[in-house]
Amino acid sequence: MRVPIDWLRDYVDVPAGTTAQQVAADLVRVGLEEEAFHGGGVTGPLVVGRVLTLDKEPQKNGKVITWCTVDVGAANGTGEPQGIVCGAHNFEAGDLVPVILPGGVLTTPQGPMVVGARKTYGHVSAGMICSELELGLGEDHDGIIVLTRRFADDPEMLARLEPGADAIPLLGLDRETVEVNVTPDRGYCFSIRGIAREYSHATGASFTDPVVDLAEAAPAATDDGFPVRLEDHAPIQGRAGCSRYVARVVRGIDVSAPTPRWMSQRLVEAGMRPISLPVDVTNYVMLGLGQPLHAFDAATLGDAIVVRRAAPGERITTLDGQDRALHPEDLLITDGGRTPIAIAGVMGGAETEVGAGTADVLVESATFDPVSIARSARRHRLPSEASKRFERGVDPELAPAAAELAVQLLTAYGGGSVDPGVTDVGTPRPIVTVDLDPDYPARFVGVPYSRDDVRRILTEIGCHVEEVATTGGPRMRVTPPSWRPDLRTAPDLVEEVARIDGYDRIPSVVPTPPSGSGLTHGQRARRIVAEVLAGQGLTEVWSPPFVGDTRHRDLGWDPQEARARTVALANPLSEEQPLMRISVLSTMVDALVRNVARGAKDVGLFEVGLVVARDGEQRRAPTEDVGILPSEDTLAAIHAAIPAQPRHLAILLTGDRDRAGWWGGGRRADVTDVIALAASVAEALGVETEVRPADDVMPFHPGRCAALHLADGVLLGHAGELHPKVVASLGLPARTLAAELDLDRLIAASEVTVQARDVITSPVAYSDVALVVDETVTAAAVEASLRSGAGDILESVGLFDVYRGDQVGPGRKSLAYRLAFRAPDRTLTTDEVSGLRDRAVAEAARVVGAVQR
Fold first, then answer.
1. Domain holding 822: CATH number?
2. Fewer C-beta neighbours within 10 Å, C or N terminus of the chain?
3. Burial degree of 287 (CB within 10 A; 0-12, 13-18, 19+)
4. If DSSP states are collapsed to H, E and C, what string results for 315-352?
5. What is the tens place of the pLDDT at every residue in 80-94?
6. By residue range, what is the domain housing residue 253?
């Protein structure tokens, strides 16, 4: 919310000379943080100049520049005309224009720009004739500000337009604006009125509520007002979409009448573009008071306005020219209940737009349900200024006053007359009272607030406080003001007491943590996994968990099958990524692509994240209103509708695994590296795994992929080289390696208590054996048979050589293993070791047909 300081002064006593920075500092005291400061970005000399001569000069590049001489009076120190090159053509000799002389500074998106004298297009240009964009007054870059036109309706300003006069105050460039960050629970601060009230709380400055006089001036409802019917037959969560609708009609106005300069200037300072008098008036009232308004061309309306929900198949063309399909939950303003003429609280329809031929205007000032407006705005992707305010809650008592101000401004500057008939229908929701223990704020916050302090602060923010006696002792019965729908409970009131009294009074006390069991097993396990992989040179990343069908196809998956395992987002951030991921690799690859694109060649990444693993049809979860504890059955239904979301670990490798240097050449990462990394995680958690070959598992390369299983055969995941087609589709480096494991399964397996082994001090005995097997026999199968045959005294077995060639014949391979034997109670003899080795070889021969070389 942009707050022009001069506009703020209309409602609250801001001392003269107060800067935007000082106002922002005061607002911070009551919890409103500034976003930015605007205005005051032009420093002189910016003066009024009279164009004396003007020559059009075509250039070789096809551009036509204007070479001007400009009288700037004595502002340049010599009184001589300035020579200036300009690219615009909307002014003539004799016009008065703003000129920034050498030494002046303009604020640009790139930073301050110092204007100087420089040679360009064959001339020395000593300064700049300025447009609205260059001075931060608007978006027009191609048109120079012609001051005589700008102030044509203001004789007092025209009299001040002399060459050399300071143009900064003339154009309002000395006026400052502070931009405030409004949190969702402080919707009343989306107005100058609300910010002024908060400034009063922060500084004690006198606040004048403009709504008081406007409410007194607003006439009461009459029987002959424009007919309006509220027919919301499908309220959301039991609440009517429109609780109040005020309509006023102004006839015979001149819609072409110019918006007064002071109003246009305030709108621009507040970040809005002046359009036409009716639109500018509604925007001005909205910004000033916080009540969104809408102006309809009354001649386009039928015999009545009906507020209702959309019917199936209905459509509307909104003011932005878009044809929109309506949802049954959309609240509509309709012409007699038939034709939709606006999406209530969001945007009006094109058919009833106020245009050049409009003479009669109907002003709508209504109160709409925040939930209904928020859903419609997001459903149609129309975050309008009106919807921003309605979805945060608009003061239900504000509608008549806002309509009164609007009709006053329309008749004052557009002529015409106001119909005596006034429409005011609906029943605003009752304001909830809250019983508050006067001692509760002090207990809750830890600051000794007295009973008088609590009553004074609550009264100051607009609450009605009544002392009542209850069985539990004296209480304060607090009725929040109509503009504070967020005050519903005692803690809400306590927060206001603490905020207005000053957050700086709350002591900083470090809480003493309660004793507990510490981290859970899962938390400890995840930390171990991260430390193990980081210790091996990998970097942890995080990727957004959103994907689309294109990514599924890139990974070699059937999009329909992938969709059957996931859920679609109701309101995706991107239409290209409307689904939740079913694999961490599917989103993590973006991090690898980004790193490689920025020059990284040897990259190792890992990520731990959740995936969706839906099994069967997706159920619809029930909803409850905010602030209502769901029943046990509702909670059970909500949990039942949530699909399984296991936690996965994914790894990506590319480039060299061993770096080259003065010590020798490097080594490119291969399949064994990524398998070893996956296995190291299981080993760190004390879980035994079995590596098996895996084929036709996308997105992995067939023949260069391994499946990791638990000892009981449960699949953990896969590791290997990505398929060439996947690498090409994703733009990854060639021979990229990847792994993905179900971390939840691995952690569950690690919960089994591991029995520590006794330390054996007897020496180890080694024996090597080379076995010839068929090419189709895996090394893991050979190793398992050796372990089975050798018995418990076998401490370890490791593959150290693989041979294929003439000596073993075609379709055969030789696998060399080193067996390590150790007895717990003695030194093994040579005969014992040989016997154990022979038993292992015999078992391998029986199981896999191995032949010893």
1. 3.30.70.380
2. C
3. buried
4. EEEECCCCEEECCCCCEEEEECCCEEEEECCCEEEHHH
5. 999 999 988 889 999
6. 215-425
